[in-house]
Amino acid sequence: MGFVELLEVAAMPVVQVLLISALGALMATHYFDHLLSEDIRKALNKIVFFIFTPSLIFSSFAQSVSLEDMISWWFMPINVGLTFLIGGIIGWILVKLLKPNLKVEGLIIAACSSGNMGNLPIVVVPAICNEKGSPFGSRDVCHNNALSYASFSMALGGIFVWTYTFQTIKSRSMKFKALEAEAAEILKVPNKDFDANAETHLLKDNDSEIEVPPSAHYIGDTENQIIVDQDQCNISKKGTGSLWHRMVEVISHFLAELMSPPAIATFSGFIFGAVAWLRNIIVGDNAPLRVIQDSLQLLGNGTIPCITLLLGGNLTQGFKSSSVKPLTLISIIIARLFLLPVIGLFIVRAAANLGLLPVDPLFQYVLVMQYAMPPAMNISTMAQLFDVGNEECSVILLWTYSAAVIALTAWSTFLLWLLS
Predict the structure, then answer these.
(1) Fewest Cβ atoms closer than 10 Å to its Cβ: which of 51, 159, 200, 299?
(2) Would you say 123 and 83 are in contact if contact means Cβ atoms under 8 Å apart?
(3) 3-419 maps to which CATH number?
(4) Quick check: 371 and 343 in contact, CB under 8 A?
């Protein structure tokens, strides 16, 4: 295939995401009478989280994943872990070089390390298979495999986000809250000789205001990984707490992710796909309970349009004013969308040359694209959860996702050429 044909195949899924996201953004404005208001987005998030996404994952896994497939996919958990580890190191280096305000430090590291392993792969990867001239074989087989790879990626990404990324943002947020409390105590001391502006400078950048944490509420995230009760994550102003307390908290969030509906659907789909007699009960023209699989597929079809609309609606929050410096935004974009994918490409190609990966080129495509995804939308959920850097997080997500339109198209085109 020529360059123009490959570019067309790669660009169409990204353009689809862009168009539907733009519609979601418009639906969140007064032009559509706030049809996707914040409350409606939270409610729709819960429906997608509890119903649509599990249905899509289970129906896909039960139909197309066998025990041999599961064994051959052993490298994907390692690959997802490497994206978080390498991205975290790059983010830490950026923090040391840029020396941003403490309120933004955790966001920078999280944005560099935590890619969108949820809704974007489920939208983009299967759409590649539907394009004429796709190098990944038969459309039906490619589409089923793509959904399985993307669903597995979603489950793995959620586990890493709610352990590694959660602790990254929480630790910086606790330090910021501690400084905030210390400054408040100093302000209360009478006749204290100090520079109030200097104290305030420790807590905010330019015009970025510090807000009082809201009361407990549920936050629905766009990637539909987990619904968090803020009452269970109150931040202590006395420090980081004991090591045991932190370990228990990490384990509790890890178990919560394992018990989330998408994760349960993943494990259940694996079981039905691996055990032949269970698969034959619901999959196939002669299956006695095939109506269950058909119903789940029908529900799963609502996942992609809903999460793409929600993605656009949530990104509108990034139009608010913020003190994030342009250099910080440019650095995050380069690290997340260009530097990290280059490193990931070398890792995946090395693994393929050593015979560690399945023969399917689509699997290699998915592994490399995991490095090229923009930051996880769950970062916004965590910023709201700890009430630190909400506006800054929205701005970072807005600009990185805007740049991802070009970056994803470029990387997808290059990978199609490389793997075809």
Answers:
(1) 200
(2) no
(3) 1.20.1530
(4) yes
User: Mean per-residue pLDDT for 278-293?
Assistant: 89
Higher pLDDT: 137 or 320? It is 137
* 206 Rama class: left (phi>0) / alpha (psi -120 to 50) / beta: left
| DSSP assigned state of 284 | S
Name the more confident of 61 and 353.
Answer: 353
Q: 166-188 vs 378-386: helix axis angle to the nearest 10?
A: 30
Which 3 state secondary structure label does DSSP give 189?
coil
What is the spatial distance between Cα 121 and Cα 150, in angstroms, rounded to a whole number? 5
Q: Which residue has the higher pLDDT, 226 or 190?
A: 190
The Cβ of residue 307 has, within 10 Å, a number of other Cβ atoms equal to 27
CA 248, CA 372: separation in Å to the nearest integer? 32
Cα–Cα distance between 91 and 108 in angstroms, integer?
Answer: 6
Helical (H) or strand (E) element with 214: none
229 bridge partner residues = 218
- In the numeric block, which tokens belong to residue 312? 């656009």
In sequence order, which residues have a C-beta less than 8 Å from that of residue 85 and are 6 or more positions away? 113
Instruction: Compute the distance between CA of residue 65 and CA of residue 151 in angstroms, rounded to an integer.
Output: 11
In the chain, the amino acid numbered 85 is L
Annotate 359-404 with DSSP letters as a single string: S-HHHHHHHHHHHHSPBPTHHHHHHHHHTSSHHHHHHHHHHHHHHH
- The H-assigned helical ranges of 28-138 are 38-47, 53-64, 67-72, 75-98, 102-113, 119-130
Residue 260 has pLDDT above 80, yes or no: no
> Does residue 18 register a pLDDT over 80?
yes
